[in-house]
């Protein structure tokens, strides 16, 4: 392995570790805690609530009649921040690894990922690094090291965002499969159906060169990545207990 290629590999691995660690920063959790501290300070200043239902409404819970089911402003803000965090990390890794990759400026070696041996439909080194960094950041969001590998909620938004970014057509197929199966099979089985549709589309897109819109070029790496992403979603929603 040449010095340039070894340096590129080291930078890529470091970026993946960094993506997981930075993805583990629970921005949504911090926003919720900040709002809760603000509300508790209001209580300490003498603004006592009259009933337990009002107290639950203040800290973000539902009322006794179940009317308060929509997410609050803090919850939505946290989801937006966590989603932007994962997407930004994927973009940062793309830029960093491209700058360190050999062959970009001097034409030393083909700048393709290791999956190039399996197909002519192959990503560049930096595209591959960004693809897996996004997944690492998503895993960090779901199982954050800073919270003892216990995330807050299911954390769907960042995973949906990276699916839209890298496999938009597969995302559309997954949503359509979920909506079709939900009334018939229930929520959990509908999730399974949507994941199967998502993975099946990425493999079909590789084999038959189906449209990929603005996403990554269909090929073996994206197909494997989609399978891993589906496994992560299944582990979080169908296996792991909710945090």
What is the count of β-strands? Answer: 0
- The Cα radius of gyration reads 21 Å
Shape: flat
Low-confidence stretches: 62-69
How many structurally independent domains? 1
pLDDT averaged over residues: 78
Oligomer: single chain
**Major beta sheet summary:** none
Coarse structural class: mainly alpha
- Count every helix, treating DSSP H or I runs of 4 or more residues as helices: 9
* Approximate helicity band: 55-70%
* SSE order: HHHHHHHHH
* β-sheet strand percentage: under 5%
Summarize the structure in words.
By secondary structure, this protein is mainly alpha-helical. Residues 62-69 have low confidence and may be disordered. The radius of gyration is 21 Å and the shape is flat. It has nine helices and no strands. The relative contact order is 0.12. The protein has one domain (3-239). The chain starts with a helix and ends with a helix. It has helices at 3-23, 27-44, 52-59, 73-100, 125-142, 156-166, 168-185, 187-208, 220-239.
How do you describe this structure in short?
The protein has one domain. It contains nine helices and no strands. The protein has helices at 3-23, 27-44, 52-59, 73-100, 125-142, 156-166, 168-185, 187-208, 220-239.
